[in-house]
Amino acid sequence: MAETRFLVDTYLEWIKKQGIPIYEDFGFDLLTMDLQPWGRIDAKAAFALAHGRGDFLDMQVVEIAPGAKTAPQKHLYEEVVYVLDGRGSTTIEDSSGAKHSFEWGTKSLFVLPLNARYQLFNTSGQKPARFVTTTNLPMMLNAFHNEDFVFNNPFAFPERLGEEKYFKGDGEFLPLRPGRHMWETNFVPDLSTFKLQEWKARGAGGSNIMFVLGDGTMHAHVSEMPVGTYKKGHRHGPDFNVFTVCGEGYSLYWYEGETEMRRFDWKHGCVFTPTNMLFHQHFNISAEPARYLAVAFGGLRYPFAEDKKKTFLGMDVDVKAGGRQIEYEDQDPRIHKIYEEALAAKGIQHRMEQFLTAAGIK
């Protein structure tokens, strides 16, 4: 009689067979993470499973040796790539055999269109190239529990490739309203210089842009905090992987009703993923604007889940009005004091006066 199987997680079973490290934590420094050879892709790699990843996503950290390339890949899951260090190129082949190529560098963002054949190359002969991919492989393997279906499926999605300009660093601006403006593309050459749009409701002169990548269900957005400022606290469902792009800072986090606040310090190469409905708040303590990239499953075009709809509708709405944001006047008084002390240690003056005064805080 065959063994009775129950509570099966096909994805976790699959990654354990890959022979590379599996890390689990609240957050990571991806630049210092130890990687090992992964035969499937012909490069070093590791799985980074953040505590707040939810049921849909994982992160795969990959490093290509100088002058090397990955093995060609094709799969029925979506994948968003953020380049941590190095430079290289990507070639994507559509169902007709036509190829689309582009060159990327540190802080580039791009999508690998659904079930299109692709290959990545390190164009430097001296330095390795390291990147992190955020994928919905866990959802796909657990939904179909069939490896062959996910990795050897012939079905083509030509509409996911979009216009040729999307592979050249160009795109289309889709205006909605502050906080929801979108840029549709497949490739952003440098997130550190990409033009953002003002978003006053999230606090302290911040700005952002949302991305539609490969007409997919993977969400990405970039937000920026000016020098000497911090954003308003907020919460949402799981699976938002938050990657530092520019600057240094920290995030405080706590659950509703808790009096203790925990802290995660970040700089370029770091990522953390807030767990389900965990309040968190971001603080810039560097002498330059701080930017971060958030990647999740379910975007403004295709939210997929009801909770994502509530997040996108309520991310800049007061929790007292049913939204997901804490206004400055309602934040814990300790928060600003902690920030002043953190800036003083670096010799930086905070620039929160006008925003706190407007909120009735002296």
Compile the SSE list and pairings:
Elements: H1 10-16, E1 22-25, E2 27-29, E3 36-38, E4 43-50, E5 58-64, E6 79-85, E7 88-93, E8 99-104, E9 109-112, E10 117-122, E11 129-135, H2 137-144, H3 147-151, E12 172-174, E13 182-185, E14 187-188, E15 197-198, E16 207-213, E17 218-225, E18 241-246, E19 249-254, E20 262-266, E21 270-272, E22 279-284, E23 290-297, H4 306-314, H5 333-344, H6 353-358
Parallel strand pairs: 1-4, 13-16
Antiparallel strand pairs: 2-21, 3-4, 4-5, 5-11, 6-9, 6-11, 7-8, 7-10, 9-14, 12-13, 15-16, 16-17, 17-23, 18-21, 18-23, 19-20, 19-22
Note down, in words, how this protein is organized.
This protein has 362 residues and is mostly beta strands. The chain folds into two domains: 10-145, Jelly Rolls; 170-358, Jelly Rolls (Sandwich), CATH 2.60.120.10. 13% of the residues lie in helices and 33% in strands. The protein has six helices and 23 strands. The chain has helices spanning 10-16, 137-144, 147-151, 306-314, 333-344, 353-358; strands at 22-25, 27-29, 36-38, 43-50, 58-64, 79-85, 88-93, 99-104, 109-112, 117-122, 129-135, 172-174, 182-185, 187-188, 197-198, 207-213, 218-225, 241-246, 249-254, 262-266, 270-272, 279-284, 290-297. The strands form four sheets. Strands 2, 12, 13, 15, 16, 17, 18, 21 and 23 form a nine-stranded mixed β-sheet that branches. A hairpin with an 8-residue loop joins strand 15 and strand 16. It is globular. The mean pLDDT is 96.
